[in-house]
Amino acid sequence: MQIELSVVMSVYNAEPFLKEAIESILNQTFKKFEFIVVNDGSTDNSLDVINSFNDDRIVLIDQENIGLSRSLNKGVFISKGKFIARMDADDISLPERFALQLDFLRKNKDYVLLGSNIYFIDIKGKILDQTNLPCLNEDMKKSLPNIKLMHSSAMFLREFFFKAGEYPVEIPKYFEDKILWNKMAEFGKIATLPDVLVKYRLVPSSIFNLSNKQVQQLKDLSNKIIKNNYLLTEYDKFSIKEITRISKNQQIGNYFLRISFMHFKHNRRVKALFYVVKSFAINPFETDTLKMFMKILLPTRLLNFYRKLKQKPL
After folding, report:
1. Measured between alpha carbons, how far apart are the two ends of the chain, in Å?
2. Most confidently modeled of 165-179, 199-213, 259-273?
3. Which of 58, 98, 202, 278 keeps 20 to 30 A from 30, CA to CA?
C-alpha cells in the first residue's frame, strides 16, 4: 500500500496524556497512514503505553534522548508519506483533522503548509479557550516572521520540509517550529483552516507558561535569527538558555495564571479568581499575577471603562 500521510510524534516522559494522544490519531476518520512514534529516552512508562497498542500503522523508534528537533527530523527522515502531520504527545487531534487537512492540500497544490484553529485545554482536558487565527495565505504572510501556526496542528509537504532545511537542531525547543514555518513559507503558500481540529493541552512546561517578559524576549530573539538568515551565533544559543531559565514554582504559578486569564477572558470570574489565588500563593511577587488579581477584583463597570480606554488611540 502506498502511504500518502505520515504522522510524526516525539515522546518524552508524556505518560499521563500519551494514551489519549495516540488514540486520537488511531481513531481518525481518515485511516490510511503510518504513525511514527519516537520515544526520545523517556524515563517514565511512556514506552509501555506505546507498546500497549496493537496497530500495524505504528512505527516505533526507541532511542536515547537527543531532543525534540533531532527526534522530529529523524521521524520525518524515515517517513514514507507525501504529507507529514505533526502531533504532540500531550495533545488531542479531533477525528476529522486528517480528512479535512488532506482534502485542502490535495485541492490546493500550491500550498506547502497548513494548520488549524485549536482548543486550549487544561491538564484534566477541560476546554478553556479557542483560537481565531488568520487563515488566508495573504494574511499569514503579512504576519511573518511572527507566524501563528500551532505546532501540533501542522500538516506539510515532506518535500518542502527538506528544502527548508528541517527543524533547526541548535534550538532545543520553544521556537524550532517558527523557524521552520518561516523557511517553508519561502517555497509556497501557507494557510490555517478555520475549523478547530486540535485540543492543545496547557501543561506547566509549555512555552505559554513562561512569563510575558520571557515570551517577548524569545519572540525578539527568534525574529533576529530569522532576519539574519537563520544564523545562530554562540551568543544566541546562550541567550535561549538564559531567557528560558525558570524554576519549577514559577512554571506552576504561571500555569495557574494562564488558566486564570482564559477564564477571565470569558467572564468566568469565580474560576479566574480561584486560579489566580493559586498562582499568587506560589509566586506572590510576580507582577503579572498581581495585575491579573487586581483586574478580577475590579467592578464590571470600571473594568469595561478600563478596556475601552485601552482601545482608544492616543
Report:
1. 62
2. 259-273
3. 202
